[in-house]
Amino acid sequence: MIASRYELGDSIGTGGMSDVYQAKDTILGREVAIKILRNDLARDDGFRERFKKEAQNSAQLNHPAIVSVYDTGTISRDGMDVPYIVMELVHGKTLRDVGPLPVREAAKIMQPVAQALATSHAAGIVHRDIKPANIMITNTGDVKVMDFGIAHATTDTTSAMTQTSAVIGTAQYLSPEQARGKVADGRSDIYATGCVFYELVPGPPPFEGETPFSVAYQHVTEDPAAPSTLVPELSPNEALALDAVTLTAMAKNPHDRYQSAAELAEEFGTLARGGTPLAARSYAEPGSHEVADVDDAEPAAAEAPVVAESESDEEPEKTSNPWRWIVAVLAVIFLALGGVFAYNYFDLGGGDQKQTSQSVAIPQIANLPKEEALAKLESAGLKTTVVEETSPSVEKNHIIRTSPAENSRVPAGT
């Protein structure tokens, strides 16, 4: 008996840091699951903190696709207090035991996963370890996301578990920024969800290797094979839809992914209905892609984009990332910033720029009219080249984004 309330039953699972038992809540008369930290780990403050975080994070979340936490406490074992968590008892199997599945069926499973993550992210909690073993399909067909043991509250700046130098997660589903030891945000969960979907449909994970390090390295440096090439008998439209959603979620740069789990959930819902997701639609529809040189003074310099809308109807060239979510017609302004773009690309947006008296900040020009944005760039002493593309949600002839990001500092006169 635990806490004079829970009758401990048979063991129903063992994980890397805990044992899980079926139990009965004698007060409420319901079956529950109790997760108990392993004795050999209970002396480690780091594991005790991680276990505590799981209880706290899960208790904050209320969603039908997230395993509920009912209670927490400690029991005395071998002369020490060992923490436990009382949770909803789920009868079913994990995604490790499911698949490969047809595209629609897999998307139907992944939609509530993305919806659960949207709820988690809205509460400021990033899961950081989305993988098949942490997603269950119940005997009634419901989907449950569990194990928030390494989840990170975005407002928590005190926990030792939030150190950006630590690589936390499972290698086969690790986002590039996590593999590089950067801070994970909601888009890291989106990347991992794309990896799980990739594996659920074709069968194999996107990257495999002999060691976790080799797999993590591939997440940073390699592009996965298009999942449609591993699934026979798909129609061209089905192949396009599968590739567009999966590879958009798995984009190396977080800015190129779906920017929220809610967006990804909508795309999964469209796939499940056999429709054409926005990512696929944008790639299939014509837009425009024109380049007009404003300043050729530094031809050897690398270029970095700032996006604005245009009214051109010309056919677009294919970009290096064909799965970018683009629908409406845009213009892109390029800043000749030397090696700054290369730095930002490999750093995936992380790190602080050193400010010096010889640098200037990139002005805030998002959503400004193109002419006004160009004037601000020129007044800041930045040289520009204009290129046209397509985008989903900005007025014509208005700026979409900058890269490097707004307020980033770059050498004056570039």
What do these coordinates show?
This protein has ten helices and 17 strands. By secondary structure, the chain is of the alpha+beta class. Strands 1-2-3-5-4 form a five-stranded antiparallel sheet, covered by helices on one side. A five-stranded antiparallel sheet has the order 11-15-13-12-16. Strand 4 and strand 5 form a beta hairpin. The longest helix is centred in the N-terminal third of the chain and has 20 residues.
Keywords:
five-stranded antiparallel beta sheet; globular; 10 helices; alpha+beta; about 425 residues
Summarize the structure.
The protein is an alpha+beta fold and 414 residues long. The chain is built from ten helices and 17 strands. A five-stranded antiparallel sheet has the order 1-2-3-5-4, with helices on one face. A five-stranded antiparallel sheet has the order 11-15-13-12-16.
